[in-house]
Amino acid sequence: MDVEAIRQDFPILSQGMIYLDNASTVLTPKPIIDKIADYYTYYRGNPSRSIHSFARKAEEKLVEARAISAKFINASPEEIVFTRNTTEGLNLIANGLKLEDKGNIVVTALEHHSNFLPWMRRCQREGREFRIVYPKKKDGTITLEDFMEQINNQTRLVALTHVSNTLGIILPVQEVVKVAHERNAYVVLDAAQSAPHMPINVKQSDVDFLALSGHKVCGPTSSGLLFIKKEYDNLVEPAYLGGGTVLNVEPSCFEYINPPSRFEAGTVAHCELMAMADAFEYVARVGLNNIFQHDRQLMKIGNQLLENVKGIKIYGPPVEDRTSIFAFNIEGIDPTEVAMILDSSNNIEVRSGHLCAQVFTKKVLGEPEGIVRASSYFYNTEKEMTMFAEAVKDIVDTMVS
């Protein structure tokens, strides 16, 4: 993988910053930006509505985008619902999936709020038991045994992240799916952090529902997808009704159109969704296995340079057991202050705080103010990671007595 050649596709990097906030959102390459401009310049029409040439061209592109998106996770096009982001997809399932009365819903302590709060609220509304899988290991790793303590014959659904957005921990998805399905429970997977960094195969993992965001895979904002396993699409009630969701309407009744269109009310962000599909192809050409290995090498550099520095606490398991996230704190310094210093003094952009995962940062890590998170992608270099580590060392040398 030629990182320097790849960086030429990202003119934003010419401003001189070191961008290490990729777990929040990744940068968009010029070829994808150009595709967005093409739509607004040459065929700005409303797909599935009008019959003129602009609309037909947009419809062709949207159909193609659905097929590309399906291929990206090894699904069928009719199993792909277009959304604005992971959060919308997870909420669609949390609010719309028909579940048996009673029973419990299981989530993990690692979850982003988007895969935690909707299930908590549903349990509160329906009088269900809300179960949380906490890690036994001090490094935050959740094992299959941890899940086994919470999943039982009363479990109706398990919601888990593929990769933790706080520490980059990879969860044992396939094993959890097997245990859940043996108990007739559904599995909902948050793939927001895994999709940019590793291949996803819904047929192999056998998950029932999966959500991801385009803006984390080099695409634009307001783009995402929700995978609904074909045999379950009629068990999900659409969140919205309106244009494009129905086949027939009478004064006293209506008939849904077939999935996935019934879940895509109104005018979708078709330009962004087309660009998301283009971004999937761009990332696939770079190679997800290449990206995974590159990110891991960058994390090794961070660990090697900082793990023995007094005053720095690094969170998470060994590099071999996580993806592209380097989470840490500096003794006696608020994490947000660390992030501000890195930005203002070193042009290094990271994330700080609770990362929309307060249960994990507060209850598991024991950090009331959160943590600092540096996260890489395939356009980051070993030199940048070294500069990041040196900048963190400088903060320690200057501010930690």
Commentary on this structure:
This protein has 401 residues and is of the alpha/beta class. The chain folds into 2 domains: 132 residues, Aspartate Aminotransferase, domain 1; 243 residues, Aspartate Aminotransferase, domain 2. A 7-stranded mixed sheet has the order 2-8-7-6-5-3-4, with helices on both faces. Strands 11-12-15-14 form a 4-stranded antiparallel sheet, with helices on one face. The longest helix is centred in the N-terminal third of the chain and has 21 residues. The protein starts with a helix and ends with a helix.
List the quaternary state of the chains.
single chain
Distance between the termini: 42 Å
Shape: globular
Main β-sheet description: 7 strands, mixed
β-sheet strand percentage: 15-25%
Total strands: the figure is: 15
- Estimate percent helicity: 25-40%
- Kindly provide the radius of gyration, computed on alpha-carbon positions and rounded to a whole number of angstroms: 22 Å
| Residue windows where pLDDT falls under 50 for at least 5 positions | none
* Major sheet strand order: 2-8-7-6-5-3-4
CATH topology of the largest domain: Aspartate Aminotransferase, domain 2
Element order, helices and strands?
HEHHEHEHEHEHEHEEEEHHEEHEEHEH
CATH-assigned homologous superfamily of the largest domain: Type I PLP-dependent aspartate aminotransferase-like (Major domain)
